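Figure 3 (text version): structure tokens given as input.
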């Protein structure tokens, strides 16, 4: 009976981890520090889950806890440790009152948190039943995201920003953005878009491609996919949109073998003149294919028009800049491009050892390009 209780406790704590994933910046985490934006609510159930899992391993109730992915992760962790040791020898001067070991400690705490999430996911998904359990509760978190995001979208249109901000501030360290972008339970719209693109939508898309259903209600995955895509559009996150497109393409290649052939065969069948079909049935078959095509084309055009109406999105193609750097600034890409260039220069200086976990800021600012220091307010 004791073993059954431990297993059940671990599963329900894991379910709580998955359901609370949408809340990325929980207000009530005093041990994280005032300047820390990443404050996942899931840390609380995860902190209770890890001792249970470690105890199960200690008592050998969790067999074969080590696998190949953990070996790779261990190699990465040791590399990060060596890099941090080397970075301390560089003895960089303080940056904005923060020293090397302060940043290194924060970075290692972040890494340990990430390792805890990863290891828990590995140990709690050891067979198909475990994975189905995880996906069900993961999608419960998505339902919460969609529900609160929908309330935000409607409320902002109705001029209820103040009321929505009060609710958001009950659990988050940040209220809603000043524009009409929605953030759901996340810190900001781009974080919500990142969660949708990486954590939720690939599973839903793969379930449709493979015809795999988590319950007897076969329409749930399709409804959630449409809801997730709608919320993604309302974030107006360019990075989230591009990541979603890439994730869809990758998911299609991994899980969609043969699906495109089946779709094309079904589409062509509607336009074939078969002897056993009457004229009315042929017209119905062809009409359904044409109608579906028009719906897909209309949805794509509608989404494009919807996004193009947002200046932040339209800046990608409305710029009249004559150089790449000016275009990056006009398209609100200046800070990101500048950080990429500075990071590459830092990497060229220490390609084998790096500068230490969390210590890139000490070398990146000196490598910032001139156009960023003079033309990008976020950096200058």
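Below: residues designed for each position.
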């Amino acid at each position: 009976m004791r073993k059954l209780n431990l297993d059940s406790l671990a599963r329900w704590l894991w379910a709580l981890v998955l359901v609370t994933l949408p809340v990325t910046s929980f207000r009530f985490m005093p041990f994280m520090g005032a300047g820390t934006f990443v404050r996942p609510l899931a840390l609380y159930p995860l902190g209770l889950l890890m001792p249970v899992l470690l105890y199960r391993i200690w008592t050998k109730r969790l067999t074969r806890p080590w696998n190949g992915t953990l070996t790779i992760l261990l190699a990465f962790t040791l590399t990060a440790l060596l890099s941090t040791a080397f970075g301390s020898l560089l003895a960089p001067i303080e940056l904005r009152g923060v020293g090397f070991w302060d940043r290194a400690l924060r970075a290692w705490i972040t890494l340990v948190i990430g390792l805890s999430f990863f290891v828990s996911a590995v140990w709690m998904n050891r067979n198909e039943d475990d994975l189905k359990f995880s996906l069900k509760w993961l999608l419960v978190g998505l339902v919460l995201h969609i529900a609160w995001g929908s309330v935000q979208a409607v409320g902002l249109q109705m001029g209820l920003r103040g009321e929505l901000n009060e609710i958001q501030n009950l659990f988050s360290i940040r209220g809603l953005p000043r524009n009409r972008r929605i953030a759901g339970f996340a810190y900001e719209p781009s974080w919500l878009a990142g969660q949708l693109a990486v954590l939720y939508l690939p599973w839903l898309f793969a379930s449709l491609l493979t015809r795999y259903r988590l319950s007897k209600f076969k329409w749930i995955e399709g409804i959630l996919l449409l809801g997730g895509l709608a919320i993604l559009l309302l974030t107006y996150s360019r990075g989230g949109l591009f990541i979603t497109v890439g994730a869809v393409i990758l998911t299609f290649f991994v899980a969609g073998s043969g699906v495109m052939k089946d779709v094309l065969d079904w589409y062509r069948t509607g336009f074939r003149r078969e002897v056993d079909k009457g004229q009315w049935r042929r017209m119905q078959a062809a009409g359904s294919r044409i109608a579906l095509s028009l719906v897909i084309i209309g949805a794509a055009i509608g989404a494009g028009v919807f996004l193009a109406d947002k200046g932040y999105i339209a800046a990608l193609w409305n710029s009249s800049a004559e150089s790449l750097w000016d275009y990056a600034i006009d398209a609100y890409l200046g800070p990101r491009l500048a950080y990429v260039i500075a990071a590459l220069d830092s990497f060229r200086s220490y390609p084998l050892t790096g500068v230490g976990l969390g210590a890139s800021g000490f070398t990146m600012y000196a490598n910032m390009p001139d156009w960023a220091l003079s033309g990008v307010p976020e950096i200058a």
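Residues 259-317 form one domain.
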